[in-house]
Write a structure and sequence with these properties.
Keywords: Carbohydrate metabolism, Kinase, Transferase, Xylose metabolism
Radius of gyration: 22 Å
GO molecular function: kinase activity; phosphotransferase activity, alcohol group as acceptor
Number of helices: 18
CATH topology of one domain: Nucleotidyltransferase, domain 5
Protein name: Gluconate kinase
Strand content: 15-25%
Largest sheet: 7 strands, mixed
Distance between the termini: 62 Å
Number of strands: 27
Shape: globular
Pfam families: FGGY_C (PF02782), FGGY_N (PF00370)
CATH architecture of one domain: 2-Layer Sandwich
InterPro entries: ATPase_NBD, Carb_kinase_FGGY, Carb_kinase_FGGY_CS, FGGY_C, FGGY_Carb_Kinase, FGGY_N
């Protein structure tokens, strides 16, 4: 038996899973929570904390495998592949040491720089070239901020990476690489050519030599060095693959391959993903990512140029809303720094009683007895792009219960997701749901009723991304003739339950949705 070691470098933890030839999990673990540094609207992490978390999970995973598999040998690991949080700015010096803390994807400090670049290149031209709108959370803009506000640190910078996993790859191999999926969110990549745009980099007054080499996710980019082998427990020379940004990994795991197939991901934040032949650039709020493709030669980043893209609508408010209502209405306090992506599956997480909330929701009624909730706890990126907007309740009365308020918040998130789906042209043929929020059964039914469509929810959602990553390695090594074949194999691994919409409730929600659409304009006008 051979194995693949997979990792996910998230914001709150690094997760590890060792998979067998069939994508089954042999060993898995998660690191301790990692510090998040905030202030003045900034969101930062120390990449050295990612490395410490990686070492913790690597040791625990290998130890677990040694206990469960007779005569387990790390040399039987075919490769290491990772997913990770995208849209970061990770500045490194000549020795690949961090120059400063990482500016995270959620850090939108570079609004001034976005306006300046828009004047130089034009917002519409930027959108068409990159597939994404020009706004202050993009790494290219945050690099401009970095150069302006911290010139001494910028002068020490010799390399910049944009995904947490790529820093871990550098620590394992010494290679400075990026995958084309995650790099789509940098603001410096031509999405059709799948290459860095010299014109954009020059316009930002940056040196292209700072930028990493671009690869397809399935490309072998290096191998474990002797120093990394000693630190991690992996065998010297174990192949390391480029991997894929977290949004791409969940899309791949969901099996979305055709227009009309949609995947909803409910972690702390949310995401709707589908695919189309070309980037969607004629409407606000839609992000476009280069898609790892089924055609072309392996290890050729240009294979499949312009063949298809992942279209996504990102939401800042999703599982964090579920966590908030559980903390406030289920009566258990709770740690506000964690939410659905950290949920351990059953019962509680970080002192938050999800079972109690599930019981409360089970007693609630569709429409929440007339209560509406605008669920913008953290500002929002879609259906509005407004970092300052905050949430609100409308329709409270003396008869309103905690269950009404809790349900209204989840209905609000579902209405936002409906708005997201309405931005796409293709009618839904399949909708799947993945992420920690998918464990709340009442919420899954709310989704089906609000969207008026059956929802397939993965029971083994924690397993699917690891299986998807491992099948990328098997594809790279020739086990599958194409990624389509690997995706078909992944679909066969699904363990899911389907929620069907109730006709009467669908009609009720159609009426409530019309009222919901009027909430943001009314609330925003108060500011």
């Amino acid at each position: 038996m051979s194995y693949v070691a997979t990792f996910d470098a998230g914001t709150t933890a690094v997760k590890a899973a060792l998979t067998d030839d069939d994508g089954g999990i042999v060993a898995s673990c998660s690191s301790d929570a990692m510090p998040l540094f905030t202030g003045d609207g900034h969101q930062e992490q120390d990449p050295r904390d990612w490395w410490r978390a990686f070492l913790q999970t690597a040791h625990a995973m290998l130890a677990q495998a040694a206990r469960s598999v007779p005569e387990f040998d790390p040399a039987s690991i075919l490769g290491i592949i990772m997913s990770g949080q995208m849209q970061d700015v990770i500045a490194l010096d000549e020795q690949l040491n961090p120059v400063r803390r990482t500016m995270l994807y959620s850090d939108g400090r570079a609004d001034r720089e976005a306006r300046e670049l828009a004047e130089i290149v034009g917002g519409e031209s930027f959108h068409k070239l990159t597939g994404n709108q020009l706004e202050g959370s993009l790494p290219l803009l945050k690099l401009m901020w970095f150069k302006r506000h911290e010139p001494q640190n910028f002068a020490k910078t010799r390399h910049v990476l944009f995904d947490a996993k790529d820093y871990l790859i550098a620590k394992l191999t010494g290679a400075l690489v990026a995958d084309v999926v995650a790099s789509s969110t940098v603001g410096a990549m031509d999405i059709r050519q799948r290459a860095w745009s010299s014109s954009l980099i020059d316009a930002a007054d940056m040196d292209e030599a700072l930028f990493p080499a671009l690869h397809n996710p399935e490309d072998r980019v290096g191998e474990v060095t002797s120093q990394a082998a000693e630190l991690t427990g992996f065998a010297l020379g174990t192949p390391v693959f480029a991997g894929i940004g977290d949004a791409g990994a969940t899309t791949l795991a969901s099996g979305v391959t055709e227009p009309g197939e949609y995947n909803i991901n409910i972690g702390t934040s949310g995401w709707i993903a589908t695919v189309s032949p070309e980037p969607i650039t004629d409407r606000a709020g839609v992000a476009n990512l280069a898609r790892t493709t089924a055609g072309g030669a392996r290890n050729d980043v240009s294979s499949g140029v312009s063949s298809s893209v992942i279209n996504g609508v990102p939401f800042l408010n999703a599982g964090n809303v579920h966590h908030w209502i559980t903390s406030v209405f289920a009566g258990n306090g709770g740690d506000q720094t964690h939410s659905d992506e950290d949920r351990d599956g059953e019962g509680t997480s970080s002192g938050v009683d999800y079972d109690h909330m599930g019981e409360m929701l089970a007693r609630s009624t569709p429409g929440s007895n007339g209560v509406l909730c605008l669920p913008y706890l953290s500002g929002e990126r879609f259906p509005v792009m407004n970092a300052s907007i905050r949430g609100a309740y409308v329709g409270l009365s003396a008869d309103t219960t905690a269950a009404d308020m809790a349900r209204a918040a989840l209905e609000g998130v579902a209405f936002s997701i409906r708005q997201g789906l309405e931005t796409f042209d293709a009618e839904p043929s399949e909708i799947t749901l993945i992420g920690g929020g998918a464990r709340e059964h009442v919420w899954c039914q709310i989704m089906a009723d609000v969207l008026g469509h059956s929802i397939e929810v993965f029971r083994n959602a924690d397993v699917m991304p690891a299986a998807a990553l491992s099948f990328l390695v098997h594809y790279a090594l020739g086990r599958f003739a194409s990624l389509d074949e690997a995706t078909a194999r992944l679909r066969a691994c699904r363990d899911s339950v389907t929620y069907e919409p109730d006709g009467e409730t669908v009609r009720l929600y159609d009426a409530v949705y019309s009222r919901y659409r009027a909430l943001y304009p009314a609330i925003n006008g108060l500011g």
